[in-house]
């Protein structure tokens, strides 16, 4: 396994645009408004974070990720100023202003209980230490939790992710064709938080191809007081079925404050592909993809062949295409009783007090209460994306003990952030291999 590179050389990753003596992550005001590679050098900016609050990692494929992190007493792991700099980009490209959990809502099937783990159970205060062995190849960092003390609880590491690509350059017309292949790597950051008997893994993977994966893992133990589902709302675990573990729902909601290409101003689009008759000559089916500009706040639902993207307002790649990031949301058990867990995504116009997907008034009493209410028809100029991924947990014998981690999550995938693949070998990163006439 590849040895972790560590942070000893992090300042060198800042390259030409800043020379610094300590680890700092600069915010990038203004740099992207000019767009593209020809933008002037960024003006001197105040550091967004310094020292141990900076995560910066150059992956073997040449992609550098930078971000700031902290542990919130409610939301747990909060990432801010997330930037992506592939090998051929002279400057970091900002992607997310902030990204974190917005709620974990857990109602039980018999109606006996319901939890809001982030706001009511104060998820972030349940931070657990991470053993060195549980952060293989990486470094565990410390943070303070009020009334608890210092918790050594953030793992920063790298993990292999399998094939990055495999291709024959003869297909694109290279004179002396070669087979190119590479194995991909992720920068991986995660925390552990206990809520009752559950332990949650809050994990973010930042891939060398620009993909961001958010996933929440639930492990720990089935709730000790909930083995009495005699009314049919549970599943027998243990001998003879006397103990029936109560079924329940984990709706995990994330809040993504996009800052694509360095500007808060962005657009959201929905794409749908549908059947469109038959090719008269060949007799094969035809498809048609349509784009819908989402100019107002909305709650969206997955459908066959549907996807959304957040489009930078003032940042283009070297091909002149607007940079954008696609939300890849594949699966969800939606808890339909609540308006705030009934949909797969919610996109709201930014408001400072709209912080949690539900139970928001516990923390922000003068604000609206949940994400379904935030989405009330305003114009979208600074979108905040709330992603809901539900998991209806019907326990099984294998859930004892400890319970194997069950994961739920989504991805943010760059679409036209760079002119070609960020991992294209240098000898193929040339105009003649970028598009065909
Ligand atoms: Cu569960």
From TrEMBL:
SUPFAM superfamilies: Amine oxidase catalytic domain. Keywords: Copper, Metal-binding, Oxidoreductase, Signal, TPQ. Residues 416-437 are annotated as: Disordered. Its cofactor is Cu cation. Homodimer. It comes from the Bacteria. The keyword Metal-binding applies. Contains 1 topaquinone per subunit. This is Amine oxidase. Its EC number is 1.4.3.-. GO terms for molecular function: copper ion binding; primary methylamine oxidase activity; quinone binding. InterPro entries: Cu_amine_oxidase, Cu_amine_oxidase_C, Cu_amine_oxidase_C_sf. Residues 1-32 form the signal peptide. Topaquinone (TPQ) is generated by copper-dependent autoxidation of a specific tyrosyl residue. The active site is at residues 117, 198.
């Amino acid at each position: 396994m590849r040895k972790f590179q560590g942070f000893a050389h992090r300042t060198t990753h800042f390259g030409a645009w800043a020379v610094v003596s300590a680890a700092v992550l600069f915010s990038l005001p203004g740099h992207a408004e000019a767009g593209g590679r020809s933008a002037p050098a960024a003006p001197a900016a105040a550091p967004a974070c310094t020292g141990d609050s900076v995560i910066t990692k150059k992956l073997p494929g040449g992609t550098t990720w930078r971000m700031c992190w902290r542990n919130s007493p409610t939301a747990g792991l909060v990432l801010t100023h997330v930037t992506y700099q592939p090998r051929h980009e002279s400057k970091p490209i900002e992607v997310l202003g902030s990204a974190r959990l917005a709620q974990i809502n857990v109602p039980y099937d018999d109606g006996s209980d319901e939890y809001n783990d982030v706001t009511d159970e104060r998820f972030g205060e349940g931070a657990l230490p991470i053993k060195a062995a549980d952060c293989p190849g990486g470094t565990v960092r410390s943070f303070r939790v009020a009334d608890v003390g210092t918790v050594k609880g953030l793992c920063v590491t790298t993990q292999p992710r399998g094939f990055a690509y495999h291709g024959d350059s003869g297909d694109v017309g290279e004179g002396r064709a070669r087979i190119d292949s590479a194995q991909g790597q992720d920068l991986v950051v995660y925390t552990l938080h206990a809520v009752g008997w559950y332990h949650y893994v809050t994990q973010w993977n930042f891939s060398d191809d620009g993909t961001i994966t958010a996933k929440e893992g639930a492990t720990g133990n089935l709730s000790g007081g909930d083995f009495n589902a005699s009314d049919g709302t549970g599943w027998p675990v243990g001998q003879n079925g006397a103990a029936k573990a109560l079924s329940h729902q984990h709706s995990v909601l994330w809040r993504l404050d996009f800052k694509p290409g360095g500007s808060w101003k962005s657009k959201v689009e929905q794409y749908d592909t549908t059947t469109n008759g038959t090719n008269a000559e060949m007799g094969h089916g035809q498809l048609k993809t349509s784009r819908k500009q989402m100019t107002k706040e909305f709650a969206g639902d997955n459908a066959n062949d549907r996807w959304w993207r957040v489009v930078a307002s003032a940042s283009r790649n070297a091909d002149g295409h607007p940079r954008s990031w696609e939300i890849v949301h594949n699966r969800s058990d939606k808890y339909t009783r609540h308006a705030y867990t009934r949909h797969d995504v919610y996109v709201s116009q930014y408001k400072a007090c709209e912080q949690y997907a539900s139970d928001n008034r516990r923390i922000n009493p003068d604000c609206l209460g949940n994400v379904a209410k935030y989405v009330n028809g305003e114009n979208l100029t600074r979108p905040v994306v709330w992603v809901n991924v539900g998991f209806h947990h019907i326990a099984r014998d294998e859930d004892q003990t400890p319970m194997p981690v069950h994961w739920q999550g989504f991805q943010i995938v760059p679409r036209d952030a760079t002119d070609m693949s960020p991992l294209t070998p240098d000898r193929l990163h040339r105009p003649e291999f970028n598009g065909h006439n």
